[in-house]
Amino acid sequence: KAGVTQTPRYLIKTRGQQVTLSCSPISGHRSVSWYQQTPGQGLQFLFEYFSETQRNKGNFPGRFSGRQFSNSRSEMNVSTLELGDSALYLCASSPLTNTGELFFGEGSRLTVL
Amino acid sequence: AQSVTQPDIHITVSEGASLELRCNYSYGATPYLFWYVQSPGQGLQLLLKYFSGDTLVQGIKGFEAEFKRSQSSFNLRKPSVHWSDAAEYFCAVGAMNYGGSQGNLIFGKGTKLSVKP
């Protein structure tokens, strides 16, 4: 069974631009979560989607948004990029919404110049 | 406030020695507890989890963890460390709330493990 796939793996943007990251969950998983990982703040929850609905959102500004499609694939978007948005963005999928077990992708490393 | 504390930022152990990584949590509800491992350039992999029942849980790669409610701790242990165990380890807590959001885990800052030959 294929794991969680994130694209692109690496990208470089400049301040003010926007970026879209994609996540394909494990087949059959309907819950997708996004996390931001930085050396200073560690892993921070961005949002979770289940059946195309956002179930929860972390404490991030409105520049961070996401969506989930009917095939459970998810995208997150960051608009008006800031230097502080440089991070590893991890996507995780889960087979059920009540187990808490997450299966992580390898992440998309975003560098903002 | 809900939080997870991993007091040790970096630990170095000799190969073959025992290992204990500390984790303390603060959580209002009955917690789900997890340990994840991250190798350089990789995503996180689940080592083990505690939901309820036996407070000593076994995981993959020979790891185990013990849940101590009175101490709000969930320490990770391994009796004999292998060089391949060098990685960063994250403790996490989530809600035992069926129907609620289960993707919202609170992670500790991580403990980096180095293994000496």
Keywords:
heterodimer; A: 113 residues; mainly beta; 7-stranded mixed sheet; 4-stranded antiparallel sheet; 53% strand; globular; B: 117 residues; Immunoglobulin-like; 6-stranded mixed sheet; 12 strands
Protein architecture, described:
The complex is a heterodimer of chains A (113) and B (117). Chain A is built from no helices and eleven strands. Chain A has 113 residues and is mainly beta. In chain A, strands 2, 4, 5, 6, 9, 10 and 11 form a seven-stranded mixed β-sheet that branches. In chain A, strands 1-3-8-7 form a four-stranded antiparallel β-sheet, with no helix packed on it. In chain A, a hairpin with a 3-residue loop joins strand 4 and strand 5. Chain A is globular. The mean pLDDT of chain A is 93. Chain B has a single domain, classed as Immunoglobulin-like (Sandwich), CATH 2.60.40. In chain B, 0% of the residues lie in helices and 51% in strands. Chain B has no helices and twelve strands. In chain B, the strands form three sheets. In chain B, strands 2, 5, 6, 10, 11 and 12 form a six-stranded mixed β-sheet that branches. Chains A and B meet through strand 4, strand 5, strand 9 and strand 10 of A and strand 5, strand 6, strand 10 and strand 11 of B.
